[in-house]
């Protein structure tokens, strides 16, 4: 059995030990996925080449092999997309009764379900997340968002009693790479339910499923121009933000880019919602069911490679059980399977890109240099691709960079506390406030702490659970505005 290795300042790097607690036979997911060689933009209901004819490669982060060429959308393409979206507002979409609009959303939801296996495989190939996650979380939730908001389309008056909601107009939506299809669904569904039209900009490393979603939209008969998808990198996103004929921007991504966008839009008529970074505290009280809490910790940070802005990347453990929790976590690290994301047995997949891996490594090195002790799973890592062994730091203080900065990788920082008050103070001691978790046997503690935690979402005795009926969004530098639930309609209506 392999033993996790630990590293302190000036200690030598651990040699990876390639043993495992047990071995399963490989179980790779393999269905024909219809991966194309080249993906164009989706504008006005059609796939069109980018204005200057340029494409960039999308690679599989688990193998470093190129998957496809993706169109690099320019400001000209964004302008074409905005014009198509504006035209659609004045066309059949704008005149359609709300109940009819809802039917399109139901149809899209059902088609997502029908094609979910294929889309899950594509998502995993393009993004590196384990098939278990894309199959069991991303795809069902993407369909659930369309189903949920389909129901709202003709009931908006009940969401805003005494008011008359009308669409805002053309929404520009910019999404990140951690949940490519789910983020698209998350943003498109409420916008369409409220009668808006959209220009969507996927993240440059994960554009493939967005274009497959475009096919579904076309197959569902959605009128042309209602949704336009312009792939590309930073400049394409910036062109969406600065386009004068866009009425609302919804952005999910880094706090850094969120600040740039907020500055750019200050003083304009455009509405803005931002869902940015996080440094969630997952709090384990001494009376918590520890085995269950340890599973929740794994779910909060390792099973998604830490690639979620709400990842429970700071573990706050009550001092009296800290040793027991660390021991259980160390034991559990041994059995985590890191590797082929298409294998159904895989727990931890690939890091999304070379750049992201470099960021994780830099921050982990800073943790070691600042004196925290690093423990890493001694699991075999594939020779090709971008990988980081699930890790945790003990001996962390609040001033360490690993305790303050978003790491977006499978790396946990463990801190301790003595009283619930101290736990709250430590949890809130962050520029972020997106999410938090509490593990305790006492309902009264949950109620008390939930109200004191400055976080948009607080999970109690569970972690990373999502539901389209529940609003999601942050405090402080984690952004503003809520997505999901009835709250998620507000950014898309004029009252
Ligand atoms: P992450 O750190 O999660 O990669 P980013 O904030 O860099 O997130 O990217 C999130 C999304 O924002 C991506 O689609 C990216 O292309 C886009 N983006 C990056 N820079 C800008 C910018 N200056 N303006 C608009 N969009 C941007």
Secondary-structure blueprint:
Blueprint (H helix, E strand, L loop, with lengths): L4 E3 L30 E2 L1 E3 L2 E3 L6 E6 L4 E7 L3 H16 L1 H4 L2 H17 L1 H12 L3 H22 L3 H4 L6 E2 L2 E5 L5 H14 L3 E5 L6 H12 L7 E3 L4 H9 L5 E5 L2 H11 L5 E5 L5 E4 L5 H12 L12 E5 H17 L18 H16 L3 E4 L14 E4 L6 H4 L6 E7 L2 H9 L3 E2 L1 E5 L3 H10 L4 E4 L14 E2 L2 E2 L12 E2 L1
Parallel strand pairs: 2-6, 8-9, 8-11, 9-10, 11-12, 13-14, 13-19, 14-17, 16-17, 19-20
Antiparallel strand pairs: 1-15, 3-4, 5-6, 7-23, 12-22, 15-16, 18-21
Helix pairs in contact: 3-5, 4-5, 5-7, 11-12
The chain binds adenosine-5'-diphosphate (ADP).
Adenosine-5'-diphosphate binds next to helix 9 and helix 10.
How would you sum up this structure, described in words?
α11 packs across α12. The chain has helices spanning 75-90, 92-95, 98-114, 116-127, 131-152, 156-159, 180-193, 208-219, 234-242, 255-265, 290-301, 319-335, 354-369, 401-404, 420-428, 443-452, and strands at residues 5-7, 38-39, 41-43, 46-48, 55-60, 65-71, 166-167, 170-174, 197-201, 227-229, 248-252, 271-275, 281-284, 314-318, 373-376, 391-394, 411-417, 432-433, 435-439, 457-460, 475-476, 479-480, 493-494. The longest helix has 22 residues, at 131-152. The strands form six sheets. It has an eight-stranded mixed beta sheet with strand order 1-15-16-17-14-13-19-20, with helices on both faces. It has two domains: 4-28 and 278-460, Aldehyde Dehydrogenase, Chain A, domain 2 (3-Layer(aba) Sandwich); 38-276 and 478-494, Aldehyde Dehydrogenase, Chain A, domain 1 (3-Layer(aba) Sandwich). It has 495 residues and is an alpha/beta fold. 55% of the residues are buried. The protein is globular. It is 38% helix and 18% strand. The protein binds adenosine-5'-diphosphate.
């Amino acid at each position: 059995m392999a033993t996790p290795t630990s590293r302190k300042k000036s200690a030598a790097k651990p040699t990876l030990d390639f043993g495992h607690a047990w071995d399963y036979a490989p179980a790779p997911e393999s269905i024909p996925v219809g991966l194309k060689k080249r993906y164009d933009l989706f504008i006005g209901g059609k796939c069109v080449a980018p204005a200057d004819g340029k494409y960039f490669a999308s690679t599989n982060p688990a193998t470093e092999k190129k998957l496809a060429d993706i169109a690099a959308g320019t400001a000209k393409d964004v302008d074409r997309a905005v014009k198509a979206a504006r035209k659609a507002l004045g066309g059949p979409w704008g005149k359609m009764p709300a109940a009819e609009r809802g039917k399109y959303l139901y149809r899209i939801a059902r088609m997502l379900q029908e094609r979910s296996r294929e889309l899950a495989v594509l998502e995993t190939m393009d993004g590196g997340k384990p098939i278990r996650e894309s199959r069991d979380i991303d795809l069902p939730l993407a369909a659930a968002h369309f189903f949920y908001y389909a129901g709202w389309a003709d009931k908006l008056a009940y969401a805003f009693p005494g008011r008359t909601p009308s669409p805002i107009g053309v929404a520009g939506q910019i999404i990140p790479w951690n949940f490519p299809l789910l983020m698209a669904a998350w943003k498109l569904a409420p916008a369409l339910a409220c009668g808006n039209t959209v220009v969507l900009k996927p993240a440059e490393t994960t554009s493939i499923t967005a274009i497959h979603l475009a096919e579904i939209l076309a197959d569902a008969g959605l009128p042309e121009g209602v949704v336009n998808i312009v792939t590309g990198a930073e400049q394409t996103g910036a062109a969406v933000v600065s386009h004068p004929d866009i009425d609302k921007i919804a952005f999910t991504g880094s706090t850094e880019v969120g600040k740039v966008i907020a500055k750019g839009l200050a003083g304009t008529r455009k509405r803005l919602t931002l869902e940015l970074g996080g440094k969630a505290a997952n709090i384990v009280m001494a009376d918590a069911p520890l085995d269950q809490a340890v599973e929740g910790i794994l779910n909060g940070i390792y099973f998604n490679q830490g690639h979620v802005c709400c990842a429970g990347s700071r573990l706050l453990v009550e001092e009296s059980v800290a040793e027991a929790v660390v021991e259980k976590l160390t034991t559990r690290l041994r059995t985590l399977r890191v590797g082929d994301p298409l294998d159904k047995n895989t727990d931890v997949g690939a890091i999304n890109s070379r750049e992201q891996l470099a960021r994780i490594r830099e921050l982990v090195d800073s943790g070691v240099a600042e004196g925290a002790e690093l423990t890493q799973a001694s699991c075999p890592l594939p020779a090709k691709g971008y990988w980081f062994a699930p890790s945790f730091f003990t001996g962390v203080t609040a001033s360490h960079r690993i305790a303050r900065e978003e790491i977006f990788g499978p790396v946990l920082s463990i801190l301790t506390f003595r009283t619930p008050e101290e736990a709250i103070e430590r949890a809130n001691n962050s520029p972020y406030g997106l999410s938090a978790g509490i593990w305790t046997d006492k309902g009264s503690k949950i109620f008390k702490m939930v109200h004191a935690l400055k976080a948009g979402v607080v999970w109690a005795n569970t972690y990373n659970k999502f539901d389209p009926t529940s609003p999601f969004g942050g405090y402080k530098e984690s952004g503003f505005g809520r997505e999901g639930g009835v709250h998620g309609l507000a950014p898309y209506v004029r009252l």
